[in-house]
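Incident log, support desk, overnight shift.

02:14 A customer reports that sequence design results differ from what the structure should imply. Their input is reproduced verbatim below. On-call engineer (initials T.W.) acknowledged and began investigating.
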C-alpha cells in the first residue's frame, strides 16, 4: 500500500491550499482507491498562513482593522493558546486592493497594529508572530507602531499622516505608550525574504515598483525610510544594526520596525510554519509527497513552501513530486530543487484563465497522471 502525503501551498487567485489538497486527494482516490492519503496544507509564512494554521486546528479570531488605505474591513488572525499569528497579506496586503486603487505613497501597515492591539486586549498573549509578505505599503512599519500607541511626530509636534511618503518629515518618536501596551510580549517575524531595509537590495528598490511606485516616488520612499531608521535608532540605540538584519526589508519594512522597536526575532517563514505544524512527523509516515503552488518559478527556489517540503523530505529519503498551475523552471532546476517530477496544469490546459477557473478539475486530472506514472515506475523497478 502506498502512503501519500499531500502538502500543497495555495494556488494564488484560484484555490486555497486546503482546496488544492482535497482536489489532489480526489484525483488519487479515483485511480488508486487502495492508496492511503493524508492532507497537510502548507504556506511559506506569507499569504495564506492564517488559513493554513486554521486547517491545522488553530482558532480564527475575527476583528475589524484598516486595510492599507485606511478603510475598515473584517479580517481574521490565528490563535493557539497564548500565541497569535497576524498575516500581513490578509490585513494590509496588495491583493486586497484593486489594481487601479493602489497608493504606494500613502499605504500603511496600521491595520496590522490594530490586530495586535485587539489580540492583546481580548486574552492573555505571550507571543505574537508577524507573517510578512504581500504588503501594499512601504512605511517601514510606522503605521503598525502607531496603531500600538507610538507617536510619530514632525518637528512641530504634530502626528504624521500614514504612509511611507510622510516619513521624510519625521522628527521624533515617542514609544512609551506602545511599550506600556505590549509589556513583555515576545514578537517573532516570519519573513518571506532576507532583504535589508535600505539600499539597492532594500524594501524600496526591490519591491516598491510592484506596489505602483514610479522612480520619483521610490526616491521619496527611500528618503523616508532613511529618516525613519535614523530617528528610530536614536530612540532605540540597541537597534543600531536592525536596518541591515535579514528580513528588515520584508513587508515594506515592517520587519525593520518589529526588530528595532518590538525586539522581534526573525526566522524564515516556511521553516517556521513547517516546524509549528510538525511537518517532519507527517513526512515520516509517507512513501510519496505531492506538493505544489500556483507558479513554480525562480522565486520558488528561494524559500517558498515547496522547497521547504523537498528539504524535509530529502532528510528522510522520501520522493517529492510537484503540481503547479504553470512551471517556468528547467528540468535541471526542478531536479536540483528536489522535485522528482513537476506536473503543470498548463500542460493539460494551455489557457491560463481556464486553469484558474477550472483548477480543481485539472488538479484531479494531474493527480491521476501521478498515479499512472508511479505505477509505471514501480513496474520498471521490478526485476
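02:41 Re-run completed on a clean worker. Output:
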Amino acid at each position: 500500500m502506498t502512503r501519500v502525503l499531500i502538502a500543497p501551498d495555495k494556488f494564488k487567485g484560484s484555490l486555497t491550499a486546503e482546496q488544492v489538497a482535497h482536489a489532489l486527494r480526489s484525483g488519487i482516490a479515483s485511480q488508486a482507491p487502495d492508496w492511503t492519503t493524508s492532507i497537510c496544507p502548507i504556506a511559506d509564512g506569507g499569504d495564506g498562513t492564517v488559513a493554513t494554521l486554521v486547517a491545522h486546528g488553530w482558532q480564527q479570531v475575527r476583528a475589524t482593522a484598516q486595510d492599507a488605505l485606511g478603510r475598515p474591513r473584517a479580517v481574521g488572525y490565528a490563535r493557539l493558546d497564548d500565541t497569535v499569528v497576524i498575516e500581513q497579506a490578509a490585513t494590509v496586503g496588495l491583493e486586497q486592493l484593486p489594481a487601479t486603487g493602489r497608493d504606494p505613497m500613502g499605504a500603511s501597515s496600521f491595520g496590522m497594529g490594530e490586530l495586535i492591539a485587539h489580540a492583546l486586549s481580548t486574552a492573555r498573549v505571550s507571543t505574537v508572530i508577524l507573517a510578512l509578505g504581500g504588503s501594499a505599503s512601504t512605511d517601514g512599519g510606522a503605521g503598525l507602531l502607531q496603531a500600538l500607541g507610538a507617536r510619530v511626530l514632525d518637528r512641530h509636534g504634530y502626528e504624521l499622516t500614514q504612509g511611507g511618503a510622510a516619513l521624510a518629515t519625521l522628527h521624533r518618536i515617542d514609544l512609551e505608550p506602545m511599550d506600556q501596551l505590549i509589556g513583555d510580549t515576545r514578537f517573532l517575524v516570519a519573513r518571506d525574504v532576507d532583504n535589508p531595509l535600505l539600499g539597492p537590495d532594500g524594501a524600496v528598490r526591490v519591491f516598491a515598483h510592484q506596489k505602483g511606485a514610479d522612480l520619483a516616488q521610490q526616491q521619496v520612499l527611500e528618503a523616508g525610510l532613511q529618516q525613519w531608521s535614523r530617528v528610530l535608532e536614536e530612540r532605540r540605540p540597541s537597534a543600531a544594526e536592525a536596518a541591515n538584519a535579514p528580513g528588515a526589508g520584508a513587508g515594506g519594512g515592517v520587519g525593520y520596525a518589529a526588530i528595532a522597536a518590538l525586539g522581534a526575532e526573525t526566522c524564515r517563514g516556511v521553516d517556521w510554519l513547517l516546524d509549528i505544524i510538525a511537518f517532519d512527523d507527517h513526512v515520516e509516515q509517507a512513501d510519496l509527497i505531492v506538493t505544489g503552488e500556483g507558479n513554480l518559478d525562480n522565486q520558488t527556489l528561494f524559500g517558498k513552501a515547496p522547497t521547504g517540503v523537498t528539504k524535509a523530505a530529502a532528510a528522510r529519503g522520501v520522493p517529492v513530486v510537484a503540481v503547479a498551475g504553470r512551471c517556468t523552471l528547467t528540468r535541471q532546476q526542478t531536479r536540483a530543487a528536489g522535485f522528482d517530477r513537476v506536473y503543470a496544469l498548463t500542460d493539460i490546459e494551455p489557457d491560463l484563465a481556464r486553469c484558474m477557473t477550472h483548477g480543481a478539475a485539472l488538479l484531479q486530472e494531474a493527480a491521476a497522471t501521478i498515479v499512472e506514472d508511479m505505477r509505471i515506475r514501480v513496474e520498471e523497478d521490478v526485476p
